[in-house]
């Protein structure tokens, strides 16, 4: 079997799907089994933030029954970004070549994973599963959530100059070399703006990002982890990055101006 672009499957050179969890006992089994059916050659890593509802214990049972399923138990709930960084570090140490992100709550359909991974086949460095490109869609979302997502993505696009339509989505495939190039350990964002940070660093490094249309489905079980503090963190971080981006653009323009001719005596 082979991974992306003919790379060998399995722990060395294969694909790792990272699924962060917190209180997802009602969903984690479907997510893991869905990934194993959609990408049989891929390994799965559940990164559980000490879920009090038994998610970690159920993930251990799934791992005991399937050698391609692994569990990383974390000590406390530290946020989505921290969970992904931990999962990526785990996979980088073990030599995986491609890393995928997947929410455990059912909003990311595992059967769409092959299409998201295939976005890397043309040489892209980061493939985004996008709700807001032609062919993408959301289902069962209240209007308020859709407007918040569209508005947030429009703000990110304008503020940071990012040429993507869905910078906040978390359904992705990313190459090992991209994670190493952007120094994933330095991505400090704890919440959902982790997703924006990875994109801006990837584009800032001169790497290629593509968007693949996906259908996003609102969760049916469990509860959303989105909160006011997460939204506020995203707002102030993106605004700070935007100010730095604009300041850098001004310095570049000033530095590239031709020197004024000296007056003759």
Descriptive report:
It is a single chain. The longest helix has 29 residues, at 228-256. The radius of gyration is 20 Å and the shape is globular. With 265 residues, the protein is of the alpha/beta class. It contains eight helices and nine strands. It has one domain (4-254): Spore Coat Polysaccharide Biosynthesis Protein SpsA, Chain A. The chain has a seven-stranded mixed β-sheet, sandwiched between helices. Strands 6-9 form a two-stranded parallel ribbon.
Helix and strand string, N-terminal first?
EHEHEHEHEEHEHHEEH
Query: Mean pLDDT, as a whole number?
Result: 86
* CATH architectural label: Alpha-Beta Complex
| Total domain units | 1
The CATH homology group name:
Spore Coat Polysaccharide Biosynthesis Protein SpsA, Chain A
- Which structural class should the secondary elements be placed in? alpha/beta
According to CATH, the fold-level topology is: Spore Coat Polysaccharide Biosynthesis Protein SpsA, Chain A
Shape estimate: globular
Number of strands: 9
Give the percentage of residues in beta strands.
15-25%
CATH class: Alpha Beta
For the termini, the CA-CA separation is: 77 Å
Number of helices: 8
Unreliable parts:
1-10, 260-265
* Backbone CA Rg: 20 Å
Helix content percent band: 40-55%
């Amino acid at each position: 079997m082979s991974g992306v672009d003919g790379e060998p499957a399995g722990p060395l050179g294969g694909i790792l799907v990272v699924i962060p969890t917190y209180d997802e006992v009602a969903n984690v089994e479907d997510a893991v089994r869905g990934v194993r059916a959609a990408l049989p050659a891929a390994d799965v890593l559940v990164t559980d933030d000490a879920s009090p509802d038994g998610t970690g214990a159920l993930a251990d049972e799934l791992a005991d029954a399937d050698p391609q399923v692994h569990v990383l138990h974390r000590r406390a709930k530290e946020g989505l970004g921290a969970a992904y960084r931990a999962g990526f570090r785990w996979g980088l140490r073990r030599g995986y070549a491609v890393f995928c992100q997947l929410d455990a709550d059912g909003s990311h359909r595992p059967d769409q994973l092959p299409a998201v991974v295939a976005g890397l086949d043309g040489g892209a460095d980061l493939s985004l599963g996008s709700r807001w490109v032609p062919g993408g869609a959301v289902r069962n979302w209240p209007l308020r959530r859709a407007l918040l997502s569209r508005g947030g993505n429009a703000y990110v696009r304008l503020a940071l100059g990012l040429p993507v339509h869905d910078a906040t989505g978390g359904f992705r495939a990313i190459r090992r070399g991209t994670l190493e190039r952007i120094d994933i350990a330095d991505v400090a964002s704890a919440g959902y703006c982790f997703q924006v940070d990875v994109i801006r660093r990837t584009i800032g490094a001169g790497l290629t990002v593509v968007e693949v249309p996906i259908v996003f489905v609102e969760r049916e079980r469990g509860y959303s982890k989105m909160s006011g503090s997460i939204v506020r963190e995203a707002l102030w971080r993106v605004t700070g990055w935007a100010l730095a981006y604009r300041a850098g653009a001004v310095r570049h323009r000033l530095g590239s101006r031709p020197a004024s001719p000296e007056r003759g005596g």
